[in-house]
Amino acid sequence: MCGLLMLIFGVIAMIKGKFSLTRDRVVEGTAARIVGLILCLPLPLGILIALALGVFAAATGQQVDASRPSYMLIDGALTVGCLLLAIIVAAATANPVPRRERRIREDRDDDYHDRPRRRRREDYEDDRGDDHIRSEDDRDRRRPRDEDDRDRGGEHIQPKE
To answer: What CA–CA distances, in Å, run from 137 to 124, 126, 140?
Structure first.
């Protein structure tokens, strides 16, 4: 289980290039990728050692028993050794995490009074100059409603015969 977690954290460290040692210390860049590689090492090294022991046992004509305590001890020592090596390298290369200052939220009501006043339509018309002065009769008017504009529901639809 520990080897699987080390493999997962090692792959993440190699991909991201960032490894958090503690909450306040972080390893970044090449050093983080090296720590990730060290965390991934127990699996391939364990396979190589098992292969070497199997080849040696086959060459001498012995039977290989994978449940021997010495083989489990080798695997455990390999896992603990890689974990300690990764922690030592990470501790030696870790940098403190820069603290972000917390933003103090201000009242949004203050922003309303600081905004400039929105221009009215008359202000826009003043920008066009004196040659375009509108009188009361020039104002925009709506089209008068026709009889056909009212909503009659569905009574104007003729049923098909």
So the answer is: 19, 18, 9
